[in-house]
Amino acid sequence: MEPRSPRAAVPPLWIRFGFGLLAAVLLDGTRADSGFGPLDGAPPSRIAIVGAGIGGTATAHFLRQHFGPEVRIDVFERRAVGGQLATVTVNHQDYESGGSIIHSLNLHMQDFVKQLGLKYRKSVAAKTAVFNGKEFILEETDWYLLDLFRLWWRYGISFIRLQMWVEEIMEKFMRIYKYQAHGYAFSSVEELLQSLGGSGFLNMTRRSLSESLLELGVSQRFIDEVIVPIMRVNYGQNISIPAFVGAVSLAGAQSNLWAVEGGNKLVCSGLLKLAKANLIRAQVNTISLQTTGESQQYELSYSTQTENVSETYDIVVIATPLQQSVDAGISFRGFEPRLPEMPGFYHQTVASIVHGYLNCSYFGFSDPKLFPFTSVLTTDAPELFFNSVASACPVNITAGFRRKQPQEAGVYKVFSPKPLEKNQLKTLFKSYYSVQETDWQAYPHYSSTQDLPAVVLHHSLYYLNGIEWAGSAMEMSSVAAKNIALLAYHRWTRQLEMIDQKDLMIKIKTEL
């Protein structure tokens, strides 16, 4: 359980209650007691979470920490536990087909691994190059200093400016762990970003990455040849994406990355067990608002393989995208006014796990024994039909493991905007034994004009995936999970002084 430091003395009941009434109106704009538990302090009896990806399972874990052992937590999932953390099997070995890497500063994910007794996957040496459709324009070597010299020779100090910019953003973002350890929560993504980076973070969600980097003094050549390939492999999009999600992507391109031995999806199944949550394999069809006097609950109607069921919950967390492009299959009833539809759509990215022989001659190497790269990123060239191709390592790496050489049949992971056609596969591979495609609606289609979705949809109805529209990553979902758990707990227990507080760094220093 995360530590929580003592707060200032609790004010008299009449002051707390009066403040609670005012804050409730400000948060919900509806009835004064909306979203709060009964005045007698009774805990919720049942909580529902829709979605068992990293966000949903982390939410179950954090809700258990805050609400204690008595509350029943049901997690609904119509597909496999893990969501976008998934694997496919090739020759009796499993390979990541979804979220593959985790940054070393992702403290929630690190804590999950520690609590669950999981292990870090062994790292395997790799070299990356950037391909423009005709030739390699940037190549990684075995010598770090030589790589730095090449970057400086080709791009000047652009890479230094970029590194300083990303580090400054990450340093500010790391404040969230301190805020959450002290129990503070935020009622919207905007409030959360504002608390971390002020108006600067909010502005980064409203202006393009290219605009921000050019203003920073990063050269157009560096943007085209380095930044664009990173955006393509991480989000399948270009430099028109907002600057904040661009910074998240660039942080994920650094060298201090890791993964979970056995597959990242083990975190999700482990968190469900740790939370003692009930996994219900079903499609949630409707969420209906039920009002009885002053109390409000939610009736969830869902379908299993054998029956249709309806059950009532005090708190509901939706941890799956609600955009029409994803087709969550959930309708809302009894809400007046009706809940607004979620704007925007999710971006299609296809992950193809190919077992075969890489066509090194396509990249200019007639002899595959001379091909030195394990990962190839691409620029935004019109003739390129893929975003990246990389030699894939299994999720279980033994002590004697070695990567297959290019002249050997190996397993490769190809990201592309659409399923690969046969002629495209024949272009990338001399021959292949198998192809397994996973067509992901993996992350939002980002735009600097897109508003950030709400976190509080109704009184005790919360939406986790809104944070993806600021930045999509495992840790972003984990941060959102902790925030929603805190938000639900404080709203239920009427501790409004713990929500949307200003100047938190000063406040925390005062508490200490």
TrEMBL record:
GO biological process, one term: prenylcysteine catabolic process
Gene Ontology molecular function: any one: prenylcysteine oxidase activity
Residue spans crossing the bilayer: none
Keywords (A to Z) from UniProt: FAD, Flavoprotein, Glycoprotein, Oxidoreductase, Signal
Span of the signal peptide: 1-32
Domain Prenylcysteine lyase: from-to ranges: 138-501
Gene3D superfamilies in the record: 1.10.405.20, FAD/NAD(P)-binding domain
UniProt-listed Pfam families: NAD_binding_8, Prenylcys_lyase
Keyword Oxidoreductase: yes
Cofactor or coenzyme needed: FAD
Family: Belongs to the prenylcysteine oxidase family.
PANTHER family with a match to the protein in the record: FARNESYLCYSTEINE LYASE, PRENYLCYSTEINE OXIDASE-LIKE
Annotated protein name in UniProt: Prenylcysteine oxidase-like
